[in-house]
Design a protein that fits this description.
Elements: H1 2-14, H2 19-45, H3 47-54, H4 58-61, H5 63-86, H6 88-108, H7 112-141, H8 146-174, H9 179-182, H10 184-198, H11 212-232, H12 241-263, H13 278-289, H14 294-308, H15 313-319, H16 321-338, H17 343-362, H18 370-396, H19 404-434, H20 440-457, H21 459-465
Helix pairs in contact: 2-7, 2-8, 2-10, 5-6, 5-7, 5-11, 5-19, 6-7, 6-10, 7-8, 7-19, 8-15, 8-16, 8-18, 11-12, 11-19, 13-18, 13-19, 13-21, 14-19, 14-20, 16-18, 17-18, 17-20, 17-21, 19-20
Pfam families: MFS_1
Organism: Embleya scabrispora
Subcellular location: Cell membrane
Length: about 475
């Protein structure tokens, strides 16, 4: 009787919801994505300020970011199991609650060790938000509406890092640094209240056991990779023991996990067989490659404005807004049209736009031409969105209801490892070029050459786009049911 009841509940949870309900669900999930990604950028911009506040070294202060990152990636592998074991809605509410508690504690911290410890608590919640969000979206929207749902959820995620620069600069100039974290509290409270009301309830699989062996292989492997990637951008790059040793350990552990996953009858964390599917595998590969282009640009542009152009933090944040506007324009004005075009061409066009948007920065001087640079950032944002949304639709369109939690965890691991890896490589390139820079002209030349590297690396997603299945995705007909 228990099995029959669970099956019936699961089937009910998997039933499609109306378009209006799907929109409300997407907006609630977007709040969680927005606040977790917003917080990352706000804190990155404030590291120099925090170093002065706590009279600490750069290495010690950097742990404010590192502790969050390591906690963030450590919980991604287990997020799929939590969704299945306790229900996706309950898992999402727990993740947002943990992020809320961590944010409040960070805002109340009065020493650097406290702040670092509380950032780890914050990272535990933040790391689970995205994969669980993707699980709920995939299950609720279904293949025919997933492109709409992911657009609604991911747009705030694209805007969060850009707005974070503006808010971070404004807070540091007018308020205490504590508000860098306390600003999350009201957003999290609203998300928790609305999530409790609007998110669909799903059945918990009480007999679903945690894959302990897989957890002991995958989680330390991902954490080791994340830590090693963070150390690549240091003075010695890959040659540093703190970089290559964690990377080697992480690679060995992930290889062992892959063997374990292939042998297991039903992997409870991440099923690596999903990567053999053309849609999921290519979607993951393009996402990983995006770390060398779109994510690297998000890292490099603020440094360009601060170090080459001499802009303030707040002015730099304002100058980055056109990138977010480009992404918004895709969702509002282009997405419906793009949904009717072969996804290969949409993804390829996004990569080309990113490349075009990189050229003016590679040719820029230390002053003037601001209008051209702002237009270039708009093209970058449009290209980023044109690549991101179709790729996510591609990756998740063929996942079944039961595969969604493990598929979301797998995709999130690729995203959270690929993005910082690409950024770290670009950071090494820039640092090597800056090492010999003694004048402003030398610094400008170093940034120019790095932008040309990004231009070339942006061709990787462009080439991968043409390996995508040529099947066209057509916009589904709008339902005629008046209840919708």
């Amino acid at each position: 009787m228990l099995d029959m009841t669970s099956t019936a509940t699961a089937a009910q949870a998997a039933a499609p919801v109306t378009d209006r309900r799907l929109t409300l669900i997407s907006l609630v999930l977007a709040l969680g994505v927005f606040t977790t990604l917003l917080d990352t950028t706000i804190v990155n911009i404030a590291l120099d300020h925090l170093q002065g506040v706590f009279h600490a070294s750069v290495a010690r202060t950097q742990w404010v970011t590192t502790a969050y990152l390591l906690a963030f990636v450590s919980v991604i592998p287990v997020s799929g199991w939590l969704s299945e074991r306790f229900g996706a809605r309950n898992a999402w509410l727990f993740a947002m609650g943990a992020f809320l508690v961590g944010s409040a504690l960070c805002g109340l911290a009065d020493s650097l060790p406290q702040l670092i410890a509380f950032r780890a608590v914050q990272g535990i919640g933040g790391g689970m938000v995205m994969p669980i969000t993707l699980t709920i979206v995939t299950r609720t929207a279904g293949p025919e509406r997933i492109h709409k749902a992911t657009a609604a959820v991911m747009l705030p995620g694209l805007l969060g890092p850009i707005l974070g620069s503006v808010l971070g600069g404004a807070i540091l100039e007018s308020l205490s640094w504590h508000w860098l974290f306390l600003i999350n509290v009201p957003v999290c409270v609203v998300a928790l209240v609305l999530g409790r009301i609007l998110l669909p309830s799903t059945a918990a699989q009480r007999g679903h056991r945690l894959d302990i062996r897989g957890l002991l292989l995958l989680t330390p492997g991902v954490v080791a990779l994340a830590y090693g990637i963070g150390e690549i951008s240091g003075k010695d790059g890959f040659a540093a023991v703190g970089a290559w040793l964690p990377l080697a350990i992480g690679a060995v552990l992930l290889a062992a996990f892959t063997v374990h996953s292939l042998r297991a009858r039903r992997p409870a964390l991440v099923d690596v067989r999903m990567f053999t599917r053309r849609s999921f595998g290519l979607g993951s590969a393009i996402t990983f490659a995006g770390g060398f282009s779109t994510y690297a640009l998000s890292f490099l542009l603020p440094l360009f404005y601060l170090q080459v152009r001499g802009e303030t933090l707040l002015h730099t944040g304002l100058l980055l807004i056109p990138q977010g506007l480009g992404a918004m324009f895709y969702v509002v004005g282009v997405r419906d049209f793009a949904a009717r075009i072969d996804s290969r061409f949409v993804i390829a066009a996004g990569a080309v736009l990113t490349m075009i948007g990189t050229v003016p920065f590679a040719l820029a001087d230390s002053h003037g031409g601001t209008a051209v640079l702002l237009a270039a950032q708009f093209a970058q944002g449009l290209g980023f969105a044109a690549t991101t949304f179709p790729v996510m639709t591609l990756a998740f369109s063929n996942l079944s209801h039961d595969e969604a939690p493990r598929g979301s965890a797998a995709f999130s691991v690729v995203q959270r490892v690929g993005a910082p890896f690409g950024v770290a490589i670009v950071a090494v390139i820039l640092q090597n070029l800056l090492d010999g820079a003694t004048t402003a002209a030398d610094r400008l030349s170093a940034f120019s050459e790095t932008f040309w590297w990004i231009f070339g690396l942006s061709a990787i997603p462009l080439l991968l786009a043409f390996l995508v299945s040529p099947d066209k995705r057509t916009e589904p007909a709008e339902p005629t049911d008046p209840a919708r």
